[in-house]
Design brief:
Elements (H helix, E strand, L loop, with lengths): L6 H21 L6 H14 L3 E5 L2 H11 L7 E4 L6 H8 L3 E4 L14 H4 L4 E4 L11 H10 L5 E3 L7 E2 L2 E2 L6 E5 L13 E5 L2 H10 L21 H32 L5 E2 L7 E2 L5 E5 L2 H10 L29 H9 E4 L7 H19 L1
Parallel strand pairs: 2-3, 2-4, 5-8
Antiparallel strand pairs: 1-9, 6-7, 6-11, 8-9, 10-12, 12-13
Helix pairs in contact: 1-8, 2-8, 3-4, 3-7, 8-11, 9-11
C-alpha cells in the first residue's frame, strides 16, 4: 500500500500529459511558455482571483510575497508553529522575525482569538497556514488584520481546492500562496507554486521578482530571484487540472468515510472540519496519545503512516534564538506529539481504506488494553 498514490492518476491521464509535453518540446519555450499563461488564467478563474502568478515552488511563493511587501530586518511576521518549516524559514531568510501564535485544538489552524495579542508596531504581515486541507477562520483573521492595516498571506500549500464559506482557498485574503509539489492536492511532477491576489501593484511586483526583479529587459528596479515556473510543469498541471474537481470530491468522500468509521474509538481524535469549511484532506490525520504503539502496529501490517511536524517550529534548533521554550505553545506541542497521518488520496481504493480502518481499530484497541 502506498501512503500517497501518484501512479494511478498518471496512468489515467498519461496520454494527455504526453501530448502536452510533446507540444512544449516542439515549440521550445521551456521557461514561461504559453502553457504557463494558460495555467495562470485557469487557476485565477478557479479561485476567483484577479491575478495568478506561477512560480518555482511553494516556498518561493511565500518568499516572493514577503519580498513584494518589503519585509526585511526589524520586521515581524505572525504565523503558527505547527507547520512545515518553510512558513517561518522564508521570514528568517529576509532577516525578519517569525512571531508564533498557537493553533486551535479543534481545527489545528491558527487560533484567531490569540492573534491580536501577538501584533506589535513591527508586524509587517500575518501568515496563517491552512493545515491538512482546510482553511483557518479567515474572516476573523482578516478583521483583526484590517483594523491594524496589516496584509494577510494565506499559506494554502495544503488547501488548494478547499472552500471557506463558499469561497475558494487562495482567494480569502490579501495574498494567497500555494504549492504544486507532487503530493499536494493539485500536484505536478516537480517543484512549482503560485501566488494569487486582487492587488494590481503586488501582482506586478510578483512578476518582477520571479525574474530577478526585472520589469523589462535589462531594467531591474527591485531585487528578485530566479522564481519562474518551468513550462513542462505547467503543461502537466493543465492535464492534472482536468481531473482535479473530481479528485476533490473523491478526497471528501474518503475523508468522510475515515471520520465516520474512526470517530467512536476511545482515545482517538479525528479531524474537525469547521462549519462553512470544506477540506481537500491533503493529509488525513488523527490524534492519539498512543501514537507510537498505533504506528508500530500499522507498520507490522505493512500500512504506511507519517507523523508530520512532530517537532513544532518554536522548538527547532534553527529558531533557538527566538527564546521559545517547551510549553510556550501547548496546543501545537500536544498535536505534534499525537498526530499521525494515514494513507490518503483520491485513488485510495475501498479495499486499502478498509485495511487501514481495520488496522487502526485493532491497533487502537490493543494499545488501550
Amino acid at each position: 500500500m502506498q501512503f500517497i498514490d501518484l501512479k494511478s492518476r498518471h496512468l489515467l491521464i498519461k496520454d494527455q500529459i504526453n501530448a502536452r509535453i510533446q507540444t512544449v518540446m516542439e515549440h521550445g519555450q521551456f521557461i514561461l511558455g504559453p502553457e504557463v499563461r494558460e495555467l495562470e488564467q485557469k487557476l485565477a478563474e478557479y479561485t476567483g482571483s484577479k491575478h495568478c502568478i506561477t512560480v518555482s515552488s511553494g516556498t518561493d511563493s511565500l518568499l516572493i510575497a514577503l519580498m513584494a511587501l518589503g519585509v526585511g530586518p526589524g520586521d515581524e511576521i505572525i504565523t503558527v508553529p505547527y507547520t512545515w518549516i518553510s512558513s517561518a524559514e522564508v521570514i528568517a531568510l529576509l532577516g525578519a522575525k517569525p512571531v508564533f501564535v498557537d493553533i486551535r485544538p479543534d481545527t489545528w489552524n491558527m487560533d484567531e482569538r490569540l492573534l491580536e495579542a501577538a501584533i506589535s508596531e513591527k508586524t509587517k504581515a500575518i501568515m496563517p497556514v491552512s493545515i491538512y486541507g482546510q482553511t483557518p477562520d479567515m474572516d476573523a483573521i482578516n478583521e483583526v488584520a484590517s483594523r491594524h492595516e496589516i496584509p494577510v498571506i494565506e499559506d494554502a500549500a495544503q488547501s488548494f481546492g478547499a472552500t471557506y464559506k463558499g469561497r475558494k482557498s487562495c482567494n480569502l485574503s490579501s495574498i494567497g500562496s500555494t504549492s504544486f509539489f507532487p503530493s499536494k492536492p493539485l500536484g505536478c511532477y516537480g517543484d512549482a507554486g503560485a501566488l494569487f491576489t486582487d492587488n494590481d501593484e503586488w501582482a506586478e511586483k510578483f512578476r518582477w521578482i520571479r525574474v530577478h526583479g526585472q520589469e523589462r529587459k535589462h531594467h531591474h528596479p527591485i531585487l528578485g530571484l530566479n522564481g519562474r515556473m518551468d513550462t513542462i510543469q505547467a503543461a502537466i498541471l493543465l492535464s492534472v487540472f482536468d481531473v482535479f474537481p473530481e479528485e476533490v470530491e473523491k478526497r471528501r468522500e474518503i475523508g468522510d468515510r475515515y471520520n465516520s468509521s474512526l470517530s467512536d474509538i476511545d482515545g482517538l481524535a479525528t479531524p474537525v472540519i469547521a462549519p462553512g469549511n470544506s477540506s481537500v484532506y491533503a493529509q488525513y490525520t488523527i490524534l492519539s496519545g498512543q501514537r507510537e504503539c498505533i504506528q508500530n502496529s500499522l507498520e507490522e501490517q505493512k500500512i504506511p503512516s507519517v507523523s508530520y511536524y512532530s517537532v513544532p517550529l518554536h522548538l527547532q534548533p534553527v529558531f533557538s534564538d527566538l527564546g521559545c521554550r517547551s510549553g510556550d505553545f501547548p496546543v501545537s506541542e500536544k498535536i505534534a506529539n499525537e498526530c499521525l497521518s494515514l494513507p490518503m488520496g483520491p485513488y485510495l481504493s475501498d479495499g486499502d481504506q478498509n485495511k487501514v480502518l481495520e488496522g487502526i481499530r485493532d491497533s487502537a484497541t490493543a494499545s488501550s488494553g
